[in-house]
């Protein structure tokens, strides 16, 4: 199926039930516990706001990778939403099915605020999961033939790993 259609259906449902804010989390992700203490203040922001959180690619149950581009990933997963929003991801640079982190609506300019909070992504926590993710992306990517090594970094076991800090646990 098309992940964009599923996400749009979930956002429509949230708006239909009166939601003004959405926290979008993949089943394999965990949010840093500190968000629970801060979320009431964050959602008081006026206007259309999308909070950008750091996305930590877990390479084990307790360590995430930070070398190369691994330490640069971020995701806009806490965002305000209004009735009548549009969710058309086709105009984005990376709108391919199953790619990118495109949850928030596309029709209005969101004010992006970077927050010092982590999302721990366990889709990459084992070598087998990383291999399956690489294979899936190669299968879904219509231009994979033009860049055959684009997803090989998922298979590299050596890198700069950081443990989840004791003061930054997740739920």
Structural account:
This protein is an alpha+beta fold and 171 residues long. Helices cover 22% and strands 23% of the residues. The longest helix is centred in the first third of the chain and has 14 residues, at 3-16. The radius of gyration is 17 Å and the shape is globular. The chain starts with a helix and ends in an 8-residue tail after the last strand. The model has no long low-confidence stretch (mean pLDDT 86).
Structural features:
3 helices, single chain, alpha+beta, five-stranded mixed sheet, 171 residues, two-stranded antiparallel sheet, globular
Number of strands: 7
Mean pLDDT, rounded to whole units?
Answer: 86
| Radius of gyration based on Cα positions | 17 Å
User: SS-based structural class?
Assistant: alpha+beta
Q: How big a fraction of the residues is strand?
A: 15-25%
The number of helical runs is: 3
Unreliable runs, pLDDT <50, ≥5 residues? none
- Fraction of helical residues: 10-25%
What is the global morphology? globular
Major sheet: arrangement of strands = 1-5-3-6-2
The biggest sheet, with number of strands, parallel, antiparallel or mixed sense and barrel status, is: 5 strands, mixed
Could you spell the SSE succession in H and E letters?
A: HEEHEEEEHE
What is the element layout, followed by pairings?
Elements: H1 3-16, E1 21-23, E2 29-31, H2 34-42, E3 49-57, E4 63-65, E5 74-80, E6 111-121, H3 127-140, E7 161-163
Parallel strand pairs: 3-6
Antiparallel strand pairs: 1-5, 2-6, 3-5, 4-7
Short description:
This protein is α+β, with helices and mostly antiparallel strands and 171 residues long.
